[in-house]
Structures are given as structure tokens and as C-alpha cells.
Design a protein that fits this description.
It is a single chain. By secondary structure, this protein is α+β, with helices and mostly antiparallel strands. The longest helix is centred in the C-terminal third of the chain and has 26 residues.
Length: 211
């Protein structure tokens, strides 16, 4: 619609000159010379203008998408013909030149769907049984309604130190407020791990032999 708007304005301007009796050939030559001069001075503006047209036709970014540009995560509020407006999580509105969306690497978290994987590192006492810990973390994740069952949560044994063992709990959500889901998962895992630690300390089992 914006492209049609600009075309109508251009045609109307040319028709108006014709009605006034001006020689359009001379106007074309003058416009060409003027365009070359303006082009050198407004390269960035023209670049952003063309990038705006690419955004409107190609649609790699849409209003309402959650994007990450240059390490900044924000919601796209408006895509203009020269610049776009994004709103950060802190409530600040930023005007970003359209060329940033075309020439830079842009992460669009919501282009195809709202699904996002939540990664939660978990460290427990080295006396804890890995298999039992994995089952506990998986059951904790499955019990949260906003964690998807397909793809199913998974838990990996990622390493161990002198006094601890490390796991990586992963779960998927399709909630727009994914940070709240991650917070809910962390709270549930915290209580589960605390109960496991108390059980391990109460058992008084010796440290496992890793030789």
C-alpha cells in the first residue's frame, strides 16, 4: 500500500507538470541530474528506504515479533519505510534503521511460532545417584503445565567436580512470556533438588570411587 502511495504521488506530480505545459523531457533530464546529486548525499537514507521495501515484501520481520539485534532483545512495534520502532523489555522505544534488519544478523524468536527451549543447568551433591537425579528433574519438568510434552523434556549428565555433579535440564514452551515459565521451572527444580540433597545427607553414603 505504501508503494502504491508513492507511485500515485509520482504520477500525479508528472501529470500536473504536463497540465501546466512543461516539457517533460527537460524535466526528466533535470530530475536525473538532481537525483545523482541527491543520491551521493543521501546514500544512507536511500539504503534504508530500499531495505524498508525489502522488509515489506520479504517479511523476515513482522510487527509483534520478538527479535534480537546486536545483542538487544525487543518487540517490533512498527516497520516504517526508513526505520522501524522496537520496544525493549525495560520499556524503551528504539528507532532502528531498516538496514540493520537486512545487513546485520537478526534473531527472530517468533517468526514461525512461539516455541522456545529453556535450558537450566543444575548442580547437585556428588553423592547423588545420576540416574535418580535425572528421573527427578524430568518428572519435575513434566509436572509443570506450561512445559510442553512434545517435544518432551530431556536431562543430560554434563560433568562432575570434586564435590558436585552437573546436569542440563531442557524443556520447551510455547508461551509468549517464556521468562515466567523458566522462573516457574527453576522454582520447582530448586525445591526438588533441596529435597534430594537432604536425602543424600541423611543417607550418609560415602563418596563414590571415580577411578
Amino acid at each position: 500500500s505504501r508503494l502504491v502511495h508513492y507511485i500515485i504521488l509520482t504520477i500525479g506530480f508528472l501529470v500536473g507538470l504536463g497540465v501546466l505545459g512543461m516539457d517533460l523531457t527537460k524535466v526528466t533530464v533535470l530530475a536525473g541530474a538532481l537525483g545523482v546529486g541527491i543520491g551521493f548525499g543521501l546514500q544512507e537514507v536511500v539504503n534504508n528506504f530500499v531495505c524498508g521495501l525489502i522488509l515489506l515484501f520479504e517479511r523476515p520481520v513482522n510487527a509483534g515479533d520478538i527479535v534480537e539485534v546486536n545483542g538487544l532483545q525487543a518487540e517490533v512495534r512498527r516497520i516504517g519505510i526508513r526505520a522501524s520502532t522496537i520496544r525493549t523489555n525495560q520499556g524503551a522505544d528504539l528507532v532502528v534503521p531498516n538496514s540493520q534488519f537486512i545487513t546485520a544478523t537478526v534473531t527472530n524468536w517468533t517468526l514461525s511460532d512461539l516455541m522456545r527451549r529453556l535450558d537450566l543447568p543444575v548442580v547437585v551433591n556428588c553423592k547423588a545417584d545420576p540416574e535418580k537425579t535425572i528421573n527427578l528433574l524430568l518428572s519435575t519438568a513434566r509436572a509443570i503445565p506450561r512445559i510442553l510434552q512434545d517435544p518432551a523434556p530431556e536431562c543430560l549428565f554434563t560433568g562432575y567436580g570434586d564435590n558436585s555433579v552437573s546436569f542440563d535440564l531442557r524443556g520447551w514452551t510455547n508461551q509468549e512470556n517464556w521468562a515466567a515459565v523458566r522462573s516457574e521451572l527453576m522454582k520447582a527444580v530448586y525445591h526438588a533438588v533441596c529435597a534430594l540433597q537432604r536425602e543424600v545427607r541423611a543417607s550418609g553414603e560415602p563418596l563414590p570411587d571415580r577411578k
